[in-house]
Write a sequence for this structure.
């Protein structure tokens, strides 16, 4: 089933997710789109060093179809629908993009050097910060990271054009760091003199067939 997600604001605190699924409808011209799922948006507020969730009047709504509706109708009210963009997720364990630390299966990495030395051990490359994702001289959590910008562009393309991550990833290819290429990645070519194969000489990978003697001419009998 093809689905798409959009954000609707100004829904009110009294509206529940069940109301949106059961009684809401997406409108795109003369077309009506069915609501499949709804999730309220919460914001995090820090007070006295403690974080708490506070609900907003916005919802992330999943519609049936390949294009989000322009408007959303519920209880005789109509609100605009904007595309939902996935946030850029950075793992705080391996510092790679696309998953959270509780889903990570890789070894823990140092935020400064990107290597997998033991946790709690002082980094011997302290002062030489190197991003594991773009090889820039900044922490992997920096918003100036080129890979962070690429991931952000991918998520925006997915939301705008309703395409998969695989399709959006091809629109923004990763820049190859040529300075880190060495002979391990690209072995040297063999420059020795090639051995030319003689005429009629070939290498057979099949089992040789039994040779047959030529037929004897009757004139020699």
């Amino acid at each position: 089933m093809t689905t798409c997600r959009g954000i609707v604001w100004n829904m009110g605190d009294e509206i529940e997710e069940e109301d949106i699924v059961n009684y809401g409808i997406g409108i795109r011209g003369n077309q009506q789109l069915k609501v499949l799922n709804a999730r309220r948006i919460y914001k995090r507020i820090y007070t006295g060093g403690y974080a708490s969730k506070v609900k907003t009047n916005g919802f992330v709504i999943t519609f049936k179809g390949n294009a989000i509706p322009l408007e959303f109708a519920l209880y005789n009210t109509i609100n605009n629908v904007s595309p939902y963009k996935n946030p850029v997720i950075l793992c705080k364990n391996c510092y790679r993009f696309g998953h959270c630390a509780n889903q990570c299966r890789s070894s823990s990495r140092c935020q400064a050097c990107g290597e997998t030395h033991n946790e709690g051990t002082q980094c011997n490359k302290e002062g030489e910060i190197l991003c594991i994702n773009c090889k820039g001289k900044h922490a992997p959590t920096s918003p100036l990271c080129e890979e962070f910008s690429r991931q952000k562009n991918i998520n925006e393309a997915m939301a705008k054009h309703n395409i998969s991550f695989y399709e959006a990833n091809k629109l923004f290819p990763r820049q190859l760091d040529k300075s880190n290429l060495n002979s391990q990645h690209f072995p040297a070519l063999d420059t020795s003199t090639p051995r030319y194969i003689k005429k009629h000489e070939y290498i057979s990978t099949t089992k040789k067939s039994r040779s047959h003697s030529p037929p004897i001419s009757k004139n020699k009998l």
The two ends are 82 Å apart (CA to CA). The first strand starts at residue 3 and ends at 8.
